[in-house]
Amino acid sequence: MDHRIGCVHRHQEDSHLVFRLPEVVNLIVQYLVKDYDTSSPSKPLFDWIYPCLFVNHLWHDCAARNMYRTITFGQGQHDLNAFQNLVSTLGQHTTAPLQMSPASLAIGNKDSFPMMDPYHIDTSLPNTINENELDDPRISVYRRSVRHLTLYKVKDDSVTDKLMCLSKQVRRIEHLELYICEPIIDSAVQPFVMAGHLTYLSLAGSFQVTDKLIHAVAKHCPRLQHLDLRACSEISDDSISSVALHCPRLEHLNVGRIKERHRITSRSINLIAENTQVRVLGFAGCDLDDECMIRLAVHRNRYMERISVNNCHRLSNASIRAFAKYCTKLSVFEMKECHLIDDWDTVAQLVERKVLLTLCEQQNRACAQWAKTNGRIIRVKAPYK
Length: 385
Known about the structure:
This is F-box/LRR-repeat protein 15-like leucin rich repeat domain-containing protein. InterPro entries: FBXL15_LRR, Leu-rich_rpt_Cys-con_subtyp, LRR_dom_sf. By secondary structure, the chain is α/β, with parallel strands linked by helices. The chain has a domain at about 300-385. The protein contains 16 helices and ten strands. A ten-stranded parallel β-sheet has the order 1-2-3-4-5-6-7-8-9-10. Helix 14 (about 315-325) links the parallel strand 8 and strand 9 (about 330-335). The chain is elongated and about 75 Å long. The termini are far apart.
């Protein structure tokens, strides 16, 4: 054993200084991640950075941080098991040494993990002989490294308890996306919100969340930039008004819905227009009026990029004219089923500006008929979904 450790020490001493500097090693690992993103997306991420775990503690920590920074789990039992493994590892209290090697902890489930950020780097020799113990400081490094967490279409009822367990230890989440995770309730998300680091929160399809949670977001997450509450029909003007008043950096808001249209009205969206930096808005199925849309167009003018008002039945030509006039950098205007909007000349102007539009069949026919009658050619293009 002494002979093996001595060999490793001599190898470290012989290696160039550049490969023993934390900043340089982290850059090397980051480039491996970039290569994965661009050169061979079908190749597992860990085939690129897995060997870095076994060089020494410095390389191990840099690699592990990049693997833990962004974590994504999809639907299916395989990913659910992987998520359970993550929760078991990072969510538990580690008063005693864990019976898990540094390498296996770092990679979690090799098929279901990704990426991270470098501070508190340990350059001492890794225990390559006996890897059965891992101290609390190392676990803390992994917990602090997680910045992005995404769960995609998780239907298992246990996901709420798992998230609550994880949130007790993983406290630096900035990007939380729970996409169509129907079992999610307020208490599963609240600890991440209370930590105060969120800049991106997507709860699209999590229809059980309520205004109570979004009020907490407004109170504790003043740096919030992205809020996606599609199909969260319990969310109302009350909490969105609070977000408008306390999250001035907000750039993306989506409160589109199929049910409970009366819960989102001009009362809260007027405040969004006046107090935030919104560029992208989703209002499909909300109960908005022309006055609100005009206020949005005037206040956000050249900064507005995309807006969806599909199924906003009260909107008329005044709305689309305001956006055509004031929003010079508009790239997407979705107006499906807005049958009071029939100013096809304004639509033609937007098409000429390369604005992508979404129309229903009835609107497409009416637009085509107008173009034929007026000797115009209008090729409406819808945005990619």
